[in-house]
Amino acid sequence: MMIIFMNSSDSEEEACNERTSLISADSPPAASYQDGLQAPEAAETQTYRKRRTGGSCSPSDADGGNSDSGIPVREIAVDDKEEELTLKYGAKHVIMLFVPVTLCMVVVVATIKSVRFYTEKNGQLIYTPFSEDTPSVGQRLLNSVLNTIIMISVIIVMTVFLVVLYKYRCYKFIHGWLILSSLMLLFLFTYIYLGEVLKTYNVAMDYLTLFFVIWNFGAVGMICIHWKGPLHLQQAYLIMISALMALVFIKYLPEWSAWVILGAISIYDLIAVLCPRGPLRMLVETAQERNEPIFPALIYSSAMVWTVGMAKQDAASRSLTQQTWDSAEDVREIHDNSAYVESEISEARSPAPTHPTTSLLEDLEEEERGVKLGLGDFIFYSVLVGKAAATASGDWNTTLACFVAILIGLCLTLLLLAVFKKALPALPISITFGLVFYFSTDNLVRPFMDTLASHQFYI
Amino acid sequence: MTLAVFFGCSFIAFGPALGLCLFSVVREPLRVIILVAGAFFWLVSLLLSSLVWFIAVKASDPGDEPLQKGLLIFGVLFSVLLQEAFRFLYYKLLRKAIEGLVALSEDGCSPISIQQMAYVAGLGFGLMSGAFSMINLLADALGPGTVGIHGDSQLYFLTSAFMTMVMIFLHTFWGILFFHGCETQRWWEMVAVIFTHLIVSGLTFWNPLYLGSLIPSYLLMFATAAWAYVLSGGCTQNLLRSLQGQQSETSPQPGS
């Protein structure tokens, strides 16, 4: 969904420093928010910190729940020493995001290219009821736009519902919801995926082995995601889940609707994050006011963290998570919403992404800072690249072009975040680049390269 | 048309470049970003040149073979010029980036020098160019078929792989030369890069007469390599020492 690089809601009051933002997930204690002091050096460090944190600000804080008021002061001192590291740090965090995004896309593209199930047309989600089988172009366009409107409305409704739930503190409900979603994703979708892969490679597997494998995979996944587990295992599970979700989207979204939905989601992301009354922004602000993590959801984390409980207050008092929350919170939520809605309403196969990752409330004192990215971003990036792989006339150039475009969009988003120091949506730039490159590579570059290859000319 | 062809051609085409990447780029996050951004710039230049070619083709008569070939040649030359223009733009961007990096660093010097950036940028251009030329071929090589069954050359895949390799290397060296020319205001170096690029692309018009296209390209590649090596501060003594496995302490490290 939308990855929001949210800044602490008090962005107007203080210059947002990754550290400070991270610290004061919630209302910044007056003392701690000495952004004014920090402003001079923070200004530069922020640029790069922001870059690597990608949205480190508020949402994550709210989430991380480590609203540490006391940290800012300490942070300021540390800032000076660490300034020389920020640049390498900044680039390092961009790479920490590049790697999982690339892995997710590779998994999706590999599956799309080999398992034919995910490119077969086999019905649609109930969120996209209009069929695209009409002969006329105008009708098809109209249907896809209507599908998009329905899908986006569903997402908006779910987001608002989630914000309402959160405002009225129905935490148990939210948790149960998220656990149910992750259960479905880890067991049902994995079962389907494994079945299709085995079918493709004509490998026989008895039910006993299948049960054993799926049970272990799912159980360990639930533990890793919702509780504690080795970092790399957790990351791997999150990538797998995002890939599974993306594959479901690729399979069940009709072609033109998928592209229009991708575009609409980016616009919605932009609006929801930047408008003062946007649901995401409100959600984050509420979380910040309460000085607690929004709620565990799907966030990919690249740093070593040890898990603390959900709204654990001691954690909050510890040193701030150095993780930069790239709108993890917001993304999560929104993602949860949309994902959840689908899972609930549609048939069994509807996607049910987002599980809360309670375990992600971390705090790192001395450990290296990490970067966090909401899984919604993973999913939509992979949907774009997967769709490009599935529908671009068997052309690998288009897939490659979309891949590079998305990576550069991610890089630019992190850079903009560092420059503007306020909540920025992460989807728009990457998705825009991806869409532009998809259509132009498929229609313009492909004939050119094909003609060149047939004559064996090189440019 | 088997796995052997697939792996053989992919390693011929991308092996050296991936080796360069592995040993010099992937460890440093900043270089990876510059690599990907270089690939992006090349991609944008390709996009614009394809647009121009596409418009030209659509505006012309599709049945006229010589005209189409002429348009294709025009497309190739225009694309070469555009690639070099984008290399220049990328140079400008990296220059600005270095200033930013210097401002942000504590000791007033950038963590990466313009020469390293030149190398990585050239490699990024080369990798993207090679990937776009070769990936579809490799995908086809995995499937069934016979090369040259209709009378074309049977060496198509192999020569494509070799041509891709030489293009990747050339882009890397051109990057170094071009940036050096921009840095030291020696315009003739930039002109030489543009000129050699045009020559190499022009040589491919002689395909499938591979002797005419591959061998001169390789010779040009060695010449450009030597020039780039010298410009980066290398000398024959360094080369001999490195071949003998000794460390040279007095001379500067080539490449930065």
3D structure, described in words:
Chain B: It is a multi-pass membrane protein. Chain B: Keywords: Membrane, Notch signaling pathway, Transmembrane, Transmembrane helix. Chain B: It is found in: Membrane. Chain B: This is Gamma-secretase subunit APH-1. The complex is a heterodimer of chains A (459) and B (256). With 459 residues, chain A is mainly α. Chain A has helices at residues 18-23, 35-53, 58-64, 71-114, 137-167, 171-200, 207-226, 231-252, 255-274, 279-290, 313-317, 328-345, 375-391, 396-420, 427-455, and strands at 4-5, 299-301, 324-326, 371-374, 424-425. In chain A, the strands form 2 sheets. Chain A has a 3-stranded mixed sheet, sandwiched between helices. In chain A, strands 1-5 form a two-stranded antiparallel ribbon. In chain A, helix 2 packs antiparallel against helix 14 (396-420), helix 5 packs parallel to helix 10 and helix 9 (255-274) packs antiparallel against helix 13. The longest helix of chain A is centred in the first third of the chain and has 44 residues, at 71-114. The model of chain A is unreliable at 1-85 and 306-367 (pLDDT under 50). Chain B has 256 residues and is an all-alpha fold. Chain B has one domain. In chain B, 77% of the residues lie in helices and 0% in strands. Chain B has 8 helices and no strands. In chain B, helix 3 (65-104) packs across helix 4 and helix 3 packs antiparallel against helix 6. The radius of gyration of chain B is 20 Å and the shape is globular. Chain B starts with a helix and ends in a 13-residue tail after the last helix. The chains are: A mainly alpha (459), B mainly alpha (256). The interface between A and B is large, with 43 and 53 residues.
